[in-house]
Design a protein that fits this description.
- The chain is mostly helical and 164 residues long.
- Helices cover 52% and strands 5% of the residues.
- The protein is built from 7 helices and 2 strands, in the order H-H-H-E-E-H-H-H-H.
- The chain has a two-stranded antiparallel ribbon with strand order 1-2.
- A hairpin with a 5-residue loop joins strand 1 and strand 2.
- Helix 1 packs antiparallel against helix 4, helix 2 crosses helix 3 and helix 4 packs across helix 5.
- The longest helix has 22 residues.
- The radius of gyration is 21 Å and the shape is elongated.
- It starts with a helix and ends in a 10-residue tail after the last helix.
Length: 164
């Protein structure tokens, strides 16, 4: 099994926003795009879905941005993946093929059992678990580096020193 790029980006957005709680300015889509090298058009779709699910608060306008709306201590990775991956999606498409085994195939049931076990395992981990320890520290460094760079870019340019 392999997660879709959509789910991968969704998890990164949630992790990044979880560690943005102390910031006074909201996180922008452009910032996340730069931090993770994600194309903006794809990122906007993911953020839109996260907002629709109620996990992200998205505010438009000049002072707008993104904030985490979900409780990181209760939002499980399993919940996120079920919604972003499509919890009812099958790993194999038996209906879309002319496979002669599809009426009596055992594989489909086995794969369903495996998917359930995967999601059940992911339900043991919350967003707070995903941002604990070194991961959380690295995300905090990303926030500081971004804002340090943004602050420097807003400073007026130093005047050249004359050599008299």
């Amino acid at each position: 099994m392999r997660l879709t790029r959509f789910s991968d980006i969704g998890l990164r957005v949630l992790i990044y926003l979880e560690r943005a709680g102390e910031r006074t300015q909201p996180v922008t889509v452009a910032e996340i795009g730069r931090q993770f090298d994600i194309p903006l058009n794809h990122l906007v779709k993911v953020v839109g879905q996260l907002a629709k699910l109620g996990w992200v608060q998205a505010t438009r306008g000049r002072n707008g941005g993104l904030r985490l709306a979900a409780d990181p201590a209760t939002l499980t990775i399993g919940q996120v993946l079920r919604k972003l991956e499509g919890e009812d999606d099958e790993l194999v498409d038996c209906e879309g093929t002319d496979c002669t085994l599809k009426l009596d195939c055992q594989l489909r049931g086995m794969l369903r059992t495996g998917m359930k076990a995967f999601y059940d395992a992911m339900d043991r981990f919350t967003l707070a678990h995903a941002t604990a320890g070194n991961t959380g520290e690295q995300v905090m460094r990303m926030h500081r580096m971004f804002w340090d760079g943004a602050a420097r870019s807003r400073l007026p340019a130093a005047e050249p020193v004359s050599e008299d």
